[in-house]
Amino acid sequence: MRINRSFILIIALLTTACGYHLRGAYGLPAGMKTIFLQGGSPALREQLITVLKSSSGQLTDSPEKADLVLRIFDDNIDRRVLSLSQRGRSNEIELAGHLEYELLDAKNGVLVGREPIEFRREYFNDQQDVIAKGNEETVIRNEMYQQVVKTIINRGRAVVETKGK
User: What is the CATH number of the domain that holds 127?
Assistant: First the structure.
């Protein structure tokens, strides 16, 4: 029994010592532990919450409680048909998104001025499996917003860490 406990303890120590962390987790600096999101779509908010939870951060409900304020402007994703089948149905779809964001510190000082982010993905629309393609589009949209959140977090982390030095 003692050998099992010792073995588990050694494995746990080795795992933490090697730098293991959950996929998608970020080491957030002190100035980014609490973020207030102003604007943005529900899908963007959901992805931001997911990233913050995995990184020991949280989304606050007011800017007064936040270390960082993230303002989202003009958040949209457009859907465009790229090619049609012989029957006139869409074969390829492009999802093209655009948003602008701004990062403010707790005192409303601008950390990152208004910057645009453009993102796009294409996928094949198989007419034989219409229901699955609807789900695929939802997954692709979520992945696009996940990438946008990572970009914003990385940019904010770089600015906060530079400001702290």
Answer: 3.30.160.150
Sign of CA dihedral 50, 51, 57, 61: negative
Count Cβ atoms within 10 A of the Cβ of residue 51 and give its class: 0-12 exposed, 13-18 middle, 19 or more buried.
Answer: buried
Closest CA to 71 of 105, 113, 37: 37
3-state class (DSSP) for residue 40? coil
Domain containing residue 36: 26-164
Average pLDDT over residues 4-23: 67
Can you name the residues that pair with 35 across neighbouring β-strands? 59, 68
10 Å Cβ neighbour count for 81?
A: 12
Strands (E), 40-109: 58-59, 68-84, 90-105
Q: Is residue 16 domain-resident? A: no
Look at residue 17 and tell me whether its pLDDT is greater than 60: no
| pTM (two decimals) | 0.77
Q: What is the pLDDT of residues 34-83, one digit of tens each?
A: 999 999 999 999 999 998 888 888 999 999 999 999 999 989 999 888 88
Q: Which pLDDT score, from 0 to 100, does residue 82 have?
A: 80
CA distance 25 to 81: 35
* Sign of CA pseudo-dihedral 60, 28, 77, 101: positive
